Every structure is written in C-alpha cells, then in structure tokens.
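Trying the structure run again after the queue cleared.
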Amino acid sequence: MMWSAWTIAKREIKSLFVSPVAYVVLGIFALLAGIHFLLSLQAFDEALQRAQIQAQLMKNPEALSGINLNGMLISNVISFAFFILLFTLPAITMRLLSEERNQGTYELLLTSPASAWDIVLGKFIAGAVFFLAMLVTHSLFLMVMFGYGNPEPGPVFAGYLGLFLGGLAFLAIGIFASSLTKNQIISFFVSLFISLVFLMLGWAGAKTSGNISEFLQDASINANFETFNKGVITISAIVYFITLGAFFLTGSQVSIQSLTRR
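Done. Tokens:
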C-alpha cells in the first residue's frame, strides 16, 4: 500500500515542481513573508533604539528588559506566515484531486492497484513536500535573525513546529475540498471556508465563557497554533493537529470511495 502511495506522490511532486501556479504561490508566499519580515525588523529596531535611549538618558537599564527578540519579532513573523498559509496552501491543493476528475484521469487511478487511501496519502505527501519547500524559503529569515541576533532556540523550534503542523492540517482540509468537486476554484473556496471556520472558533470562544468557551478554544486551529508560537509544546495541541488532519484525510478517502460505487 505504501509503495503505491509513494508512486503517486512522486508523480505529483514532479507535477507540482513544474507547475507555474505552484511557483506563483511560492513566490507570493516568499514575497509577502519577506515584506512583513522587513517591516517587523524595522519596528523591532526602532523599539530597541528607543529603549536604549531611555536606558541611557534616564539611567534605567530595566528599559531594555522588555525588548525580546522572540516575543517581539520571531513569533510575529511566524504568526504572519501561518496566516499566509491559510490562503496559499488551498491554491496548491485545489488541483490535486479536482484536476484528476476534470481531465478524466480519476478513473485510471480508481481502476489501478492503488486504493483510495493510497491516492489520498500520495497526494498529501506531495503537498507536504512542496509545503516544506515553502518553509525552507521562510527559514532564510530565521537564519538572518540567528546571524545578527541571539534568539532563544526553544521557542523558535516550537513556533516552527506549530507552523508545520498547522500547514499539514490546511493541506488535509484542502485535499478533502479537492475531492468534492472537479472545479478547482470551488475547491479553493471550500478549503478556505472550512479553514476559516476552524480559525473563527477561537474568536467565538473569546466572546463566550464557561465550558462553551473552553470547547471552542480547544477546537480552534488558531488557538492551538498560538500555543506553539508562545514557545509551549503540548501533547494536546499535537494530538489536535494530528486528529484534524486524519479526520479530513479520512473524509477524502470516503469521498473517493463514493465515486467507485456510482
């Protein structure tokens, strides 16, 4: 089973890395992340200079204690990258299964030795590989921060782990949306809508109280990501992302299997 999934993944990886749409998405991600990084770096530098002036003029060295590279810059940069993934990853996944149905190659996959789960897993692996390429471009900003600053590696690792797990969850949601329709544009907006629903659960939880608030926060993809971005790695947050991804990948499998019964 794993061999069939890997065969599909290799074919899809080659397709992604020659697709102009994929490179446009990668370029947009890198451009937006780069602009935000430069603006955030400028704001951090201005805040640092103000604190240094205050410490010198007022002879108050404690003014520098509130300047934290991780909290004021790195977590902000990672959080913005997470926000961009909300829109860019659906653009990658929208074609993974929709295009198969649109071009009539879905039937070939369904009649091949590969199972529905092999198809879903292969597409997911391909999307994850391209997503890693996106994270590599983003890590260049991290190298700059480590080269010219002294960030704490623990919170940085936790933040990127949350970014990685959150991105995998977006991929799973996108593949599910792509399995529902042959129209790539519809697939994109369905994926975006589902992701926004899980994102807004945290906002709704902040407006309520008691058990309902706690439930909504626990179910929010943003709240669980922010746990990592604050430098805290919890088992519950890891399980949340794994469960969310598995749920939508299983939904994709069911969607594909339903086509074979028609």
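The chain has one domain: 2-33+69-260. Worth checking whether this holds up in the mutant runs.
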